[in-house]
Amino acid sequence: MSATSPIQWTDATWNPTTGCTKVSPGCAHCYIERTPPFRMAGNRFVHGKTDLEIFHDRLEQPLHWRKPRRVFVNSLSDLFHEGIGDAFIDRVFAVMALTPQHTYQVLTKRADRMRAYMSHRPVGELKDRIDNAACVFGACHANIDDESHRWPLPNVWLGVSVENKRMRDLRVPHLLKTPAAVKFISAEPLLEDIADDEVFSTYFYSGWTEPPYDDVLNWVIVGVEQLAGKRVGRNAEAYEQHARTVLRQCASAGVAAFHKQMPVHGRVSGDPAEWPLDLRVREFPKGVALDC
Ligand code: SF4
Question: For residues 289 and 67, what is the distance between their CA atoms, to the nearest angstrom?
Fold first, then answer.
């Protein structure tokens, strides 16, 4: 866990699991093995896999944070990795339900499993499971019930990574059908233009609405590929135009966008003061701003 984070769109990271398996082109230069916990443990990708570790003793960490924070869940893993059982995910959701002062940002490349987990039928059974998981933390009821609209949890944002059109078309439809208070995509690393066709714009307009959530995107993060250090990935030259297309589509739909980093003179810059004016966009979903 880190009570602060260098990731500009969050305040803190919480890693009840670490380790992962590469699943798509966006994983090619995955940063997790370059982070201190992995370097110190000598945990590197071998044939696309690092050791997956599950830390029950880290589950309680957010219960001790009083100040409201945006918390990136599993920045060093993927909560919906096939090696993580539903019972453990239930406990993660129980902690999130017990700490409504925090806003949790869950980002996955396993959109199909996230959708299946969140849409478990009957949904009452899933809420009971999470309620029961809360007992582990000395609070035998996480107070999730239909009447108070606490499902999907209002403080949990769910997102999928979208590095190219193929992954967009594979993952976003699952996300849009996933119950979530806020739905977002992280287009980092952005490897090609994902917003130059009509498909992208349809994500901002609801086909059907089922309160308290609907099937539209609420937030888009975009960033250039970063290799080791501050080196820029292979799409750097085209990146600026691709990012501009994404940001313009968001602006015209009135959807919040967050530009994380871009190439500047051959390196990666996370400082908007160094960017063209029209690319200096750092917004959060409307109506869910944190008081912190
Ligand atoms: S899913 Fe994320 S954490 Fe896992 S290998 Fe890919 S980029 Fe890394």
Answer: 14
Residue nearest to atom 4 of ligand 1 (CA): 20
Spatial contact of 207 and 174, defined as CB atoms under 8 Å apart = no
Q: Mean pLDDT over residues 192-217, rounded?
A: 81
Q: Is the distance from the beta carbon of residue 109 to the nearest atom of ligand 1 less than 6 Å?
A: yes
Rounded distance from Cα 207 to ligand 1 centre (Å): 31
Report the atom number in ligand 1 closest to the C-alpha of 20.
4
Instruction: Note the pTM of the prediction, 2 decimals.
Output: 0.94
**pLDDT value for 2:** 67
Taking the centre of ligand 1 as the mean of its atom positions, its distance from the CA of residue 168, in whole angstroms, is: 16
Dist CA 222 CA 280 (whole Å): 12
Cα dist from 31 to 19, 25, 95, 225, 271, whole Å: 11, 13, 27, 10, 20
User: What average pLDDT does range 126-135 have in this prediction?
Assistant: 90
Per-residue pLDDT at 288 exceeds 90:
no
Distance 66 CA to ligand 1 centre (A): 30
Residue among 73, 107, 109, 186 to mutate when testing ligand 1 (max atoms within 8 A of CB): 109
Q: State pLDDT tens for residues 6-23.
A: 799 999 999 999 999 999
